[in-house]
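Sequence in, structure out. Go.
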Amino acid sequence: MYRKLLPWHVDQKNHQVCIKEVENKEFKERRFTLLNWNVYKNNHSFKWLGDFAKILHKYEPHLITFQEYKTKSKRSILDQHKKYGYGFFPNMQMKDEDNGLINASTCEIFEFNPIFSEHVEPFVKTPKVSFFTQYKLQNSKKLTLINTHLINFVQIKKYLSQINQIEKLCQNQEMLILCGDFNTWSAKRMHILKNMTNSLGLEHVEFEKNYHKKSYLSHPLDHVFYKGLRPIKTEILKNIKTSDHKPIIVEFTIDIY
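Output:
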């Protein structure tokens, strides 16, 4: 009887990815900045918009990955920023709102692949999602970006099932960023994630003050992994309080040319 008060999952057979195109067809830079942030569905609040504007002004990110990103009446706040195109992949709906992952960039999406988790969250019965997008570089190579939000409060075998999905997305990618909210709130979950990334040859971005990241039971939840790139600057924006997670900034340089 309470179902109408809860979000309902997007039809997995007829789901849609919303794409906004942008003028640039390829990345021309060898250095670029990533902003990764679980925005806690607060991205329409006045304070959040103020924080986001400051981040854009200071860091000028080329890539933006949000988890728990909310659109209203099929509109995104990124529609107001001509510099950014994006792909939006929802996993949850309520009234006129869609919630999910968004991969935004200053360059056109070349290819995309959205994936629902095999299992659903307890109680609300919504799946989690991963979102694969690719971008062209000036040297005809491709940069792959995978944004993910892993399933929470389920048996470890269900968590492993989504990890296996992500592993398949990562395979055979020469230049890759894997980031998001991995819900690694236990040593066992973190061990599973590290086994997967190590097997793929992915490196883990380390932060000088890791304790500023969102944690549960002393285990950080947000991570950035990479391959074929080199991080040259990292920062956790600890003073931002408009989400229960902190924005993560990583500046990369391309090693493979």
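Check: The two ends are 58 Å apart (CA to CA). The chain has one domain: 3-11+32-254.
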